[in-house]
Amino acid sequence: MTVQTMPWESRLLDQAREALEHLTHASPAALDQTLLQQGYRACAGITRTHSRTFMLASSLLPQPKRKAVRALYAFCRISDDIVDCSTSAAPAAELAAWRLRSLAPHPAGSDAVSAAWADARACFGIPVRYAEQLLDAVASDLTGRRYPTFDDLAAYAYGVASTVGLMAMHIIGFAGEEAMPYAIKMGVALQVTNILRDVKEDWARGRLYLPLDDMDRFGITEQDLTTGQVTPRWRAFMRFQIQRVRQLFADSFPGIALLDPDGRFAIAAAARLYESILDDIEAHGYNVFTRRARVSLPGKIRRLPGIWLKTQALEDRVVWFDS
Fold this sequence. Notes:
Helix content is 68%, strand content 0%. It is globular and about 60 Å long. The chain has helices at residues 7-19, 33-50, 52-58, 63-84, 91-103, 112-124, 128-140, 150-172, 180-197, 199-204, 212-218, 222-227, 232-252, 261-283, 297-313. Residues 317-323 have low confidence and may be disordered. It is mainly α and 323 residues long. It is built from 15 helices and no strands.
């Protein structure tokens, strides 16, 4: 099984391969078991509070993997919230302190979430470099940088989202490095979906993640984002963005066949349920300014049988092995 890559994907694949050289070697037994139990409960609570989709999808995994992916989610959520929601006068310093705590093989004190995350990394051999790449990308949000092209945006999306998929692969189990391009594509698709949904919220924070050359091409200005008017130009722009993201989802989906069978449905569900946000954006005329696109819990549950059937239909041409 092969996947066609574009120039930006090749560069990101090099980063992903480089991260494989930085494996976790901590012993899970060295961590306090009471603190671990508290940590895994806290991670489940963070997941439940912040992402119903991820909570639902992760419930489809066997319990050890379910606990670990929720610890991964909690690590990512806390990292993101330090930048987006912290009341600290020095968020960069707060993020740096969190980096030290969250990446320590044996977290000090009573930081239960960091303990659970350290345990998950050790149990499943997650390369710590992926977590470092994520934190580097999250830190870039503090500078308010812009993205001249989609290639530039994809590099950011790799840092904040593809790294998550690559770490999750180590928890799920995967067939080898051939799975990595699919994880990179899926991460970019997920993050750009998030960006299209959250245009209003991001702009209110002074952040612009839309590719500037695409904005110029469709005649979209920063004033358009401020006024939030759904014009024909905006609809054409959004149609173009959504078409590109749908293609990334389609290209990434066959890679699910390269995962451990007991994790395929969960990953397929996470991807397809998130992709359905695009359906909601389209159904409401590309209006992301006066409402937040979402899919209801009943809507998600209705989609699961179809997702399961599509997952079963994937042609499995590989013999998987634990990473």
